[in-house]
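Marked as duplicate of an earlier ticket. Keeping the data here for the record.
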Amino acid sequence: MKIKISAAERIFDVFNVLFMLFMIVICLYPFIYVLFGSFSDAKELMKVTGILLSPQGFSTKGYQEVFANKDIYTGFANSIFYIVVGTSLSIFVGCLFAFTLSRPYLKYKGWIMKFILVTMFFGGGLIPTFLVVKSIGLYGSRWALVFLSMLSTYNVIVLKSAFDSVPNEIEESAHIDGAGSWKVLWSLIVPLSKAAIAVQVLFYAVGIWNQWFNPMIYLTDRSKYPLQLILREILIDNVSNMGDGAGTEDKVGYDDVLKYATVIVTITPILCVYPFLQKYFVKGVMIGAVKG
């Protein structure tokens, strides 16, 4: 039996589709502009005053300048280390924390949740955090970055909601068969919460990949710098060295091309992760949106 759709509903659907297409173009165009700009010739790019729909005088000068810096490869390796180690520890600790909070037999559960929520609105601040990191001997160490970004209150709450959705009868039957809490968590709860955990992996990985402020504050050895900090140095320190012998306008043009190339180099690796986690993303986010 076909459902009749009124004229008003058809008009709404058409308007809704057109509006969403308009929003997609607005959100996508800045990325396209940066992509085309990164492959443009600096002089030709400066002549463009309107919409950029293709590279102007195709050139890879920006990427050559970025990858000419040998430190960028060390930065890639360091960023991969921070992502792999940091995300793994974040998921491990987050699962332990969320599993404990999701258990109905946890005493003072309400008070514990209130204390946890306070950390979402109030932080210690930069100076106290710096003093703590320095006092425990982590200043200048890679582990300072790993530990500072290891746990997110919001992510723990989302993960707790996912664990809450698993029926308690599953845990009870596992205990009857002799399984302990550790076995229940890693053999039952975690496999049944793959969608939420995949989203957590994405959130933590993106956060660690994008961080540059903490490395700038807590790292003293350039050999430990992540990619973002290396790219920041390229933008700040090396722009003046580009286009030697050229006029001021040419250097400004090279500056823009370098910025665009740097942005593309920065976001491309993390964009490659999305297709593998996309099927889990909506389900994992909705778990945290429906249950608190």
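See parent ticket for discussion. The chain is about 75% helix and 0% strand.
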